[in-house]
């Protein structure tokens, strides 16, 4: 039976995590949950932790509707949870790192900073297959209880079957519209957009501080990109790989040093 680690960057209390773990468990996977004890959004693939006497602090938890599924709150980042899981911290090492469901899309340049994606990439770096899943919160006024977590969970579980046929280092980045399943227009492979949905700007600079703010980029959505397809009501999937060397030619390095 495929063993699946469920993690996220929104924290172990996140409803998206609970619905994803429930869906994977109901589908017959051997599920273990290990997620940050608190929100770690934007952690990327950082592996920092709170330690006591050189030990990463881990607390067992019971999650709603998941009797018999072991769950752990980790006082560290999602990538750290994935990394130590591959080393047997939570029992048998997982075959798959399934990360999410994130509050908000991880599309375009946002994947660089995403703890959700960072956990899946870390798992892939250390021998697991990976799937990161995010729910596009187009309507910011809804509460968590009104979100369609189950739609994203169903797409994620369905995509798990594709991982066996892909190179082991591959991570799938899934974004799903916040819609009932019968209103999602389909699932498309998408390329990254060049611009994020929002961008950071400097709102204020002062003595000893900088204050930032987020604003809509107003950028045109390029056809075929993850952000454009999400806006049109499609779920999107983009294959990723962990960090690797770029296939580019460099100049004569000895000559560069001589010139310096």
Automatic annotation (TrEMBL):
EC numbers, comma separated: 3.1.3.5
Record's GO cellular component terms: cytoplasm
Domain named Survival protein SurE-like phosphatase/nucleotidase: residues: 4-194
Binding site for a divalent metal cation: 9-10, 41, 102
GO molecular function: 3'-nucleotidase activity; 5'-nucleotidase activity; exopolyphosphatase activity; metal ion binding; nucleotide binding
Protein name from the UniProt record: 5'-nucleotidase SurE
Cofactor binding remark: Binds 1 divalent metal cation per subunit.
Record's keyword terms, sorted: Cytoplasm, Hydrolase, Metal-binding, Nucleotide-binding
Stated role: Nucleotidase that shows phosphatase activity on nucleoside 5'-monophosphates.
Chief place where the protein resides: cytoplasm
Localization: Cytoplasm
Catalyzed reactions per annotation: a ribonucleoside 5'-phosphate + H2O = a ribonucleoside + phosphate
Family indicated by similarity: Belongs to the SurE nucleotidase family.
Domain of life: Bacteria
Listed transmembrane segments: none
Organism annotation: Catellatospora methionotrophica
Required cofactor names: a divalent metal cation
One Pfam entry name: SurE
InterPro entries assigned: SurE, SurE-like_Pase/nucleotidase, SurE-like_sf
